[in-house]
Amino acid sequence: MHFVIFSEFIEIKRWWEILCQREMQDRFKMAIIESDVMKAALDKWVKIYQGKAPWVEAQDNSIESFNFAKMICKETARLATFAMSITVKGSARADWINRFMNPYITRMKSDICEKACAFGYIILKPNGKGIDYVMPWEFYPTHETEGRVDGGIFLDRYHEPGDKWYYTRLEWQRFEDISKDVRVYRITNKIYRTTEANGNGEEIAINQTIWANLQEDVAYENVRGPLFSIFKMPMSNNIDLLSPLGVSIFSNAQKELKLLDIACTRFQDEMLDGKKTDKANDVDYLLSLLGVKCGYSPGQFVLNGRAGQMAAAQVKADNRETIQLIKQIRDSLQTATDGLIYALDKYADIYSLAPVGRYETVYSIADT
Fold first, then answer.
1. 360 within 8 A of 88, measured Cβ to Cβ
2. pLDDT tens digit string along 189-209?
3. Contacts (Cβ under 8 Å, ≥6 apart) of 362
């Protein structure tokens, strides 16, 4: 469970600087497979999603943010999760897994799918009592198999108001070959504490912390997949061609987002000055181009001339690109959910949370 939520991305960036790759690699004696270029790209995507794009934060402060990035992520998530239903059935074990599905769907519809669109991917991780939704800056991938991340380090921080100590937990999950015929899934926890809010400090025993119920190091046999799952955008990563990580849905449309902010800022200024303007046609063109660069059909995003409000065209039979994009995202979400359900099933085995039994997953997503 994540005890500290960062409300400002500057804190996330600082956290990156503290727990840099070299330090992480030294602590666990392993390599992290996330490149600096991917970290830099994620940094920019988050800022754009927050309405703090570089062109908005510039010193002259002449460009306002109209946050089209959030709009397109929100609309994509709405289309991808519209009337989504997931049912796990078949046994008492299935019933135990199924109890997590409604809260999971609710989170997907409310914010998680939208953030996955914005950041490229989100990690889904059971915690025994529910599901953690891990942001990309809280996870360092360490292993991949055929383009699928199946090992990584998770970050947790904890600080009790009034306590001088700040605690950090690093949880490393990965597969290990013990012998030629034996492969295990291993989880290692390392705990650190410091009096500095942004430091790492000394390593301490896990039984001195709120995580005392966890084991410092444990290995499990008969595990076929990781005990976490990644929901990522189904487009090719052209930021780092060797990376298994996903990219933001607007990764290829950052120039259009900048031009839209410029055009709308000028449009707004002219309207406030009482001048006649024809900038709406420019905005329509850029909105349509933005949609195309994000994978939508031409004209999917336009200004509604009658209402003067931003609107997204309904998905129609001839909107092939839009239909294909939403289908691919739904397929990616189903794959991620299958992985999550498998992880939940294994958690039930490991901690004896529900009787052993078969399960069947039924997906239902209505057309938009």
1. yes
2. 999 898 887 666 888 999 989
3. 85, 86, 87, 88, 89
